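Support request, please re-run this one:
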Amino acid sequence: MFDLNDVVVFARVVEAGSFTAAARLLAMPKTTVSRRVAALESEVGVRLLQRTTRSLGMTDAGRLYYEQSSQALRMIEEANLRLAEARAEPSGTIRISAPVGFGAYFLNRAVIEFLETYPKTKVELRLTDDRLNLVEDGIDLAFRTGVLEDSTLIARKLGATHRLLCASPNYLARHGKPGTPSDLAQHDCVIAGPSVIGAHWVLDGPGGQETVTVAGRFAANEMQAVIAAALADYGIAQIPHSVAEALIGEGRLCRVLKNYTTPAGGLYVLYPSSRHLSPLVKAFIDLATERISKRVNTA
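Re-run finished. Output below.
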């Protein structure tokens, strides 16, 4: 009867270059190694190794058999490794990147729950609105919003996201609420961008999409700064809805133009395609995306 262990022994003899060296690697007597190779040759009906007193070589049939069987053995070893990883408790350090506002107001909760669920893990969370190079910066996974650029990264879409127009209660008490998008021209707006000059907002509303020109006293290309300016009464801002809802619930911001939002973009989790998805990374993705998807898709 065919025995896969005989194939393993044959492969180790080829790789070690001799029966003696293979016997040491396999921790078995040399006679057992020789007997197993002979049993395999008998089973396949052809000589695989050419033995002399001074050298050991493969026959043409042996070379072909080794090339094919060694690939199969590697696949089996890989399957065993993945199975062992899947059964193992996640452990180690995971490095995550996310936009500042999104991370500060939501992802932190998922990180804390993850650390509590898996005591052997550590998390390094880098909150930045810059788009890091995951491979060069050693990031295991990243959360990103909007339209993805062409990339070699693996992307998993969690849902659609948009921004709400919000302002602080103090600002609205002094300046009133806009009734239509065109009224924004009479208000200070906090600009998420490089300049307070020449800014345009695209809004989706009951009548379709509208583009309005806006201006204000403060612009920033970092969302946390935009949120801080809105909270400090500097005007109306576009705030990511998951963050906006939390601040509205706390009474720190109020929504304006409730029938209008920014066009929906995607919310994604990404990881390098060149890396095997480890149990550690998979465990965090599963936990975090479950929490995030519920918030995103019910908002």
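The first helix runs from residue 4 to 16. The mean pLDDT is 84.
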